[in-house]
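User: I'm writing a short methods note and want a consistent example. For TonB-dependent receptor, I'll paste the sequence; you return only the C-alpha cells, no commentary, since I'll be parsing the reply automatically.
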Amino acid sequence: MKQTLFSKLCVSALLCTAANSLASPAATPEHVLVTATRSAQDGLRSPLSYSGLEQDALSLTAAVHPNELMQRVSGTWISRGNGQESLTALRSPVLTGAGGCGSFLMAADNISLRAPGFCNVNQLFDANIEQAGRLEVIKGPGTAVYGASAMHGVINVLSAAPDTLPAQAISFETGPNDYYRGSYQYAAQQGSHGISLRLNGSTDGGYLDDAGYDQQKLSLRHDYDGGQWQLQSVVEGSNLNQETAGFIEGYKAYKDNALRRNNPNPEAYRDAWSLRAYSQASIDLAEGKVLQITPYYRNNSMEFLQHFLPWQAIEKNGHDSFGLRAALSGASDSLQWISGIDLDYTRGWLKETQPEPFSPNQPAGVHYDYEVNATSAATFAQLTWQASERWTIDSGLRLEHTRYDYDNRSGDGSACAPGASACRFFRPADRRDEFDNWSLNLGGSYEFSAGQYLFLRAANGFRAPETAELYRLQAGQQVAKLDSERIDNIELGLKGALAEQLLYSLSLFSMHKDDVIFQDADRHNVSGAKTRHHGLELSLDYQLNDAWYAGLDLTRARHRYDSNAPLLGVSESIKGNDIDTAPRLFGSARLGWRSAQSQAELEWVYMDEYYLEPTNRFKYDGHQLLNLRASTSLSKGLSASVRLTNLLNEKYAERADVGFGEYRYFVGQRRGVYLQLNYSLPQS
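Assistant:
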C-alpha cells in the first residue's frame, strides 16, 4: 500500500531522532560559510539557506558519483545518468536541455567550472569532488559575488588546504562490475609555504552491457603566507573516457531482469577533458582592508555520440577562457563588505556532424560548425551590517554585461539539400548579441535566543541565454530573439545550534521565474514561459551522545508551470501542472555510531513519485533505498572500510523519462559491495 504524506513525514521524523553523518558539532567548523562572500563568515548568522559537507562526510561516503553526496543536502538532487553523467535539481525540478545547466552555478573555489554561456549538464564531473576539502551549497539565488547562472543555487567545491592531515595517504578500492579506484594525497607545510597534491583514478566495467568508464582527476594547491601578502594557487584537471549506455525502454522496464542490464546503444561514448588554473593574491592594506586579485585560466573539451537521437550525430565542443577577479573587502566593528569586478573572456566552439544519412531532414555531413567569442564584465558590492547585538542585515547589488560575437564557419541557412520538407538544422548568419542584467539581494536575521536565528531574505537572479540556445537553431528559425531568464525568491528561515548537540535549518521559500527559454511547437527557441516554485527544506543533525549521531535532510516542494507556453509536443493547457521530473518529497536520513577507531552509518534514501512530461499523464512511482557504510582502524596508519549500496536490492530507476512516446529509464544498480584499504602517514 502506498504511504500517505503524513506517514512519510512520520517515518522521517522517527529516523531523524535516531539519523545524519556530519561530524559532531564539537569536531568540525560547521558554522563556517565561504561561498556567500568568498571569505569565511558565520554561516548561522547569515540570512540565507546553505549546507556544507565536511571532509569526514566526503571520506565516509566515498562517492562514486556526485549523486551519493548530494543526497545529504536538502533541496538538492543530482539525478544520476549512465556512468558519470548527471542532471541537476537544486531548489528546482531536474532541468535538461541547452539551458538547463545555466540555471545553476557550479564552481570550484568560487570560480565557475565552465564559462558563462557554455555550461554542460554533466559539468560536475569536471571537479575533483572525491578529494575536496569541503562542499558548500547555497539554495536559491546567490549573493552579489555571483552572476549569471546563480539562479536556483550555487554548488561550490573547495580545494583542500596544504595543512590538511595526513601528510601522505594512499587508498585502493574495489567494487561490483569490475570497479577499481586508487587515490593518493600529499600535504606539506614548511615555513611560509604549503603544498597539497591530490590525485585519483578509477575504472568501471559498467552495470549495463558494453558500458563503463575510465576517469582521472588531479588537484595541486600551493599556499604562501608572506605576512602582508598571501598567495593561493591551484591547478586542477580531469579526464573522462566513457562507453555510455542509453535509456532502456518500456513501462517499468527497470524491474524486468531480462531488460534491466541491456544497453540499446553499445556504440555510444563520451570523452571529456578539463583544466583550470588560478592564483589568488591577497594583500592586507591599512585599516583592515584586503585586496584580492585572481587571474584564472579555464579549458574544456568534449566529444560524444548523441545516442538519444535516432540519427546519432557526433558533437564536439569546447572553450578556452581567461578571467580576472578583483575585490576589495573590509571590516569594522559593525560592517563587513566586499566590492569588486569580474571579467571573463572565452573563445568557445561547437561542431556537430552526422556520419550516415538518416533522412533528407537529418542528412549526413556538418550540421553546425561555429565559434563564439564571449565577454562578460560585472561589478558588485555585498554588505553585512551588524545593526545590533541580535540583528544582522545583508544586502548586495550586481550589474553584469554579456556579449557574444558569433562566427558561423559553415554555410548560412539550412543544413539540408534543397527540397527537404522540414530540415532539422539551421545555421544563423554571423551576428553579435548583448545582454545587460542586474541582481539584488536583501536579508535580515534576528538572534532570538543564543545561537538561534530567524531570517527573512529576498533575492533575484538571472542568466543570459546560452550560446547553444542562440545559435544552434532548428526548423528554419533564422534568429533566436531571446531575453535573459530571471527569478525572484523570497524565503523565511529558522536555523541554529542547541547546546552543541543539535544543528538545524528550516527554510520556506517561494520563487517565480520569468522569460523562461523553451522550444516551442515549431522547434524554435523562444522566451516567455513562466514557472513557480515553492516549498520547505529541513536539515537536522543531532549528536545523541559521545558515540551516536543522527539526522535528516528533507525537501517538500512543488514546481509548476505558470503559463500555457506552447511547448514542443504539447497541445493542451499545462498551467498549474507539475513540471516534469519534480518529485514533491525527497530526502535522506542517517543513523551513525562513531568511536576513536571506527564508524558505521545506515542511510535511508527516499524519492517520491514524479511526473515525466508536462501533461502529467506519465509518472514514475518513486523508490526507497538503504545504504550501509563502515570503517575501522586496523593498525597504525592502516584502515579499512566497506560500503553496501542498495542494501535491500531494490529494483529502481535513477532517472525516468518519456521520449518519442515511450517510457525510458536509466536503471539503478542492484546491491553493491565496495571494499577500501587506506594507508596514511602523519605530518612530522
